[in-house]
Backbone:
């Protein structure tokens, strides 16, 4: 069955960077896009962007442009999301999710990674 | 594209039927999907493309609508259904989510 296993909780200082990983199993990794979504108390669920594993091409939400880098390693079936210049309001749970079907519905999700930004 | 949901919260009893509405700021055809989320867990897909039931989801869940107004209906509400429900569009990037509807015990 499809599984997305994410990296562990992170505690970061303001201005630092964080990288969250998402290891996929149970399907052909290069067959579907991986999306990144975060959930904050204040803003709810926010779509951050996506990476196409077979090409490495990315689409990034404008509000995250310049701060988010999404990459993938096809050898280990792992996607990565790096967020730089962290601010206090980047404190959130970060999820990866697969893109399914022609309409790209988010069919399978990782368990989430808590990132806390605190001084 | 902005999505709104109504109500923001509602109370239900086992056996009830409930409907949650999601409205879009522009026409998004049928590119709407519904999720259920419980505390500490990832969202779980219930309905995709407005009305297609995701595999493994009970048939008491159904979705409808087109364009700018969409609904999620739960009939014969069960104890496992107390949760928060979100709509989401994938019409174009950036995708976005509604603010959620929390269903609690009446």
Residues:
């Amino acid at each position: 069955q499809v599984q997305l296993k994410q990296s562990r909780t992170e505690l970061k200082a303001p201005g630092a960077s964080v990288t969250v990983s998402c290891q996929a199993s149970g399907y052909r990794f290069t067959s579907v896009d991986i999306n990144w979504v975060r959930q904050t108390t204040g803003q709810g669920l926010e779509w951050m962007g996506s990476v196409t594993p077979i090409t490495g091409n990315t689409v990034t939400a404008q509000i995250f442009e310049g701060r988010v880098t999404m990459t993938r390693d096809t050898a280990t079936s792992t996607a990565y999301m790096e967020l730089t210049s962290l601010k206090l309001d980047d404190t959130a749970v970060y999820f990866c999710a697969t893109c399914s079907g022609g309409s790209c519905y988010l069919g399978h999700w990782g368990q989430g990674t808590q990132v806390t930004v605190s001084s | 594209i902005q999505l709104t949901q109504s109500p923001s919260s509602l109370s239900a009893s086992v056996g009830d039927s409930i409907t949650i509405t999601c409205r879009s700021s522009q026409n998004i055809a049928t590119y709407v999907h519904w999720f259920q989320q419980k505390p500490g867990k990832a969202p779980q897909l219930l309905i995709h493309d407005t009305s297609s039931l995701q595999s493994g989801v009970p048939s008491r869940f159904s979705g409808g609508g087109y364009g700018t107004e969409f609904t999620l209906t739960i009939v014969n509400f069960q104890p496992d259904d107390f949760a928060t429900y979100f709509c989401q569009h994938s019409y174009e990037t950036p995708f976005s989510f509604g603010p959620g509807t929390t269903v609690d015990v009446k």
Notes: The CA atoms of residues 51 and 63 of chain B lie 4 Å apart. The mean pLDDT of chain B is 97.
